[in-house]
Amino acid sequence: MSKRAFNFCAGPAALPEAVLQRAQAELLDWQGKGLSVMEMSHRSDEYVAIAEKAEQDLRDLMAIPSHYKVLFLQGGASQQFAEIPLNLLPEGGSADYIETGIWSKKSVEEARRYGQVNLAASGKDSEFRAIPPQDQWRLDPKAAYLHYASNETIGGVQFDWIPQAGDVPLVADMSSDILSRPVDVSKFGLIYAGAQKNIGPSGLVVVIVREDLLGKARAACPTMLNYKIAADNGSMYNTPATFSWYLSGLVFEWLKEQGGVAAMEQRNRAKKELLYGYIDGSGFYANPIATPDRSWMNVPFRLPDERLDKPFLVGAEARGLLNLKGHRSVGGMRASLYNAVGLEAVEALVAYMAEFEKERG
Amino acid sequence: MSKRAFNFCAGPAALPEAVLQRAQAELLDWQGKGLSVMEMSHRSDEYVAIAEKAEQDLRDLMAIPSHYKVLFLQGGASQQFAEIPLNLLPEGGSADYIETGIWSKKSVEEARRYGQVNLAASGKDSEFRAIPPQDQWRLDPKAAYLHYASNETIGGVQFDWIPQAGDVPLVADMSSDILSRPVDVSKFGLIYAGAQKNIGPSGLVVVIVREDLLGKARAACPTMLNYKIAADNGSMYNTPATFSWYLSGLVFEWLKEQGGVAAMEQRNRAKKELLYGYIDGSGFYANPIATPDRSWMNVPFRLPDERLDKPFLVGAEARGLLNLKGHRSVGGMRASLYNAVGLEAVEALVAYMAEFEKERG
């Protein structure tokens, strides 16, 4: 078996090695039961215990208040882009959206198919290199909800503050920064996150929703997209993505063992300080994002000449530094520093960047 | 490590041991690349090759004509219950449905939320113990499509024939019998199947759809539920359920090695003949389904006295015969005999049934 690489993929992303080892050990025979978790009925005592423990561990990690439901659904964040208006935006109503990059833009486009969207603020004027400050937002106090993406995976901007939504339910796409640091769930009406960055395998999306927001779905909402039906059935209206849910549970256990989200915040801070610090000091690499809005999770950076991109990537791969190529819409490089990417991975990356700069700079 | 059990679960169901062993071997390091399939970008060369090979192997196995698209989606068959009318039933149009049990009934209920359903036939009069013959169906020649479930997982009835739909597109829920024997795909407009019986892990649904049926989705259809968008993006409009897709690909490879669906038909025939033959000959166990309509995949059976159910199940479990309890809506027992359940499992079950009958009969 070859060495495990350092994987900076934006998603599906690196998983903790200890989690994969445990999944591997029990893949054919979970706890001596003679079958894989993948082969268990979702209604079996064994699987229900796995699913409930995963939910409880997530509740513990995020200190989710008891009047919130935690749902383990399918279809990723992109399906949520429709599911949110179908459940929360009444016919004839309006919702506020903040546009800070490609993902929030997609959420706006999908919501517009279901009703009035008030684009309360956009980072467009800064080419999405900064998050518009809240005092410039044009919020509608009668909005059905206020939606934003706490971190833009592609652009590399991140809110380091929680918007003030008053009585309007605050809805956040936390796909790429959930569990990376503490967040006060009680400030939100709904939080959602595709699993494939900080949670587990793709094919799962976690929705944390305040109970009073349930039961308002439109008549045309598909049963499988109705939050209340999912909540009333413990996310088992039909067969859920059982293995992804189980594996996410192993990640939650691992996070607790590591000291929870407070410990993750410390680590993630150290990681991003090391990388941004190196980039800013180099004069060779550059990150375009306004300093206070820089993402801790996704660090896009450029080399001084595009023709260096390919040799940089080839050299990186030879050193076991994988998936550093930037998103096709942005170009350049991107290093994603999710929870499962250790400080040693960032150290190895910075060492290689320094080596490359020395050689080519 | 304890012995692998014989797993008769209706779904999520047994997977081939060889497939699990391979997934286990490469779980932390796929082909020396230093990362798990779960950790790969769905847009990486490696993953795209995995995904394309899975699709090609499925095309080979089912001899899917080139004018059909194969989609790897999320949300299970239950989400398809909405997705089908949202894509194929025009506003003001009508669709024909055949009701043969709990699953087709659910598909009818969901379709009614989107338009006119003509219940062309129902097995209700026979308490769903038989499939109404086609000469009794009240088909609408102008129907947008004709929908049926080729196998009812809970009731244990199965079509051993393909309905004649004329020019009306035939739509089949094959969740619980896809790949169990050859089927002429060219007779269908659309075939769908939740993965967790004969394909792979839950959280994936395969849709095989004739190209001319694409592009007719309603304006209100969520982007993620639009077949054309999925087809145009190779099922990667957003991040798909990558690990489930990969594992399904391993199952397809295994099926090809076993001789494909023709070999599966032989095995499955031998399995069901052994079990039904034993039940019918016993005078102790009983299966209520009309003989020509008996499912090869799901065999419900009863003991002469409900009070024997528990001791039967306890004894079965002690012998490593798992998940024989019938669905809560039906009671009694149910043995699911999907492709990954070998003849030796059915032999072990029959031997135990004979032993139990001798002791308690």
From TrEMBL, chains A, B:
UniProt keyword Cytoplasm, yes or no: yes
Residues with PTM N6-(pyridoxal phosphate)lysine: 197
Coarse class of the protein's main subcellular location: cytoplasm
Pathway entry: Amino-acid biosynthesis; L-serine biosynthesis; L-serine from 3-phospho-D-glycerate: step 2/3; Cofactor biosynthesis; pyridoxine 5'-phosphate biosynthesis; pyridoxine 5'-phosphate from D-erythrose 4-phosphate: step 3/5
GO molecular function: O-phospho-L-serine:2-oxoglutarate aminotransferase activity; pyridoxal phosphate binding
Any single Gene Ontology cellular-component annotation: cytoplasm
Reactions it catalyzes: O-phospho-L-serine + 2-oxoglutarate = 3-phosphooxypyruvate + L-glutamate; 4-(phosphooxy)-L-threonine + 2-oxoglutarate = (R)-3-hydroxy-2-oxo-4-phosphooxybutanoate + L-glutamate
Residue ranges of domain Aminotransferase class V in the record: 6-349
EC code: 2.6.1.52
Pfam families: Aminotran_5
InterPro entries: Aminotrans_V_dom, Pser_aminoTfrase, PyrdxlP-dep_Trfase, PyrdxlP-dep_Trfase_major, PyrdxlP-dep_Trfase_small
Cofactor(s) required, per the database record: pyridoxal 5'-phosphate
EC top class, as a word: transferase
Any GO BP annotation: L-serine biosynthetic process
Keyword Hydrolase: no
Protein keywords: Amino-acid biosynthesis, Aminotransferase, Cytoplasm, Pyridoxal phosphate, Pyridoxine biosynthesis, Serine biosynthesis, Transferase
Cofactor mode of binding and number, as noted: Binds 1 pyridoxal phosphate per subunit.
Record-linked NCBIfam families: PRK05355.1, serC_1
PANTHER family named in the record: PHOSPHOSERINE AMINOTRANSFERASE
Oligomeric form and interacting partners: Homodimer.
Function: Catalyzes the reversible conversion of 3-phosphohydroxypyruvate to phosphoserine and of 3-hydroxy-2-oxo-4-phosphonooxybutanoate to phosphohydroxythreonine.
HAMAP family from the UniProt entry: SerC_aminotrans_5
Protein name: Phosphoserine aminotransferase
The organism of origin for this protein: Pseudomonas mangiferae
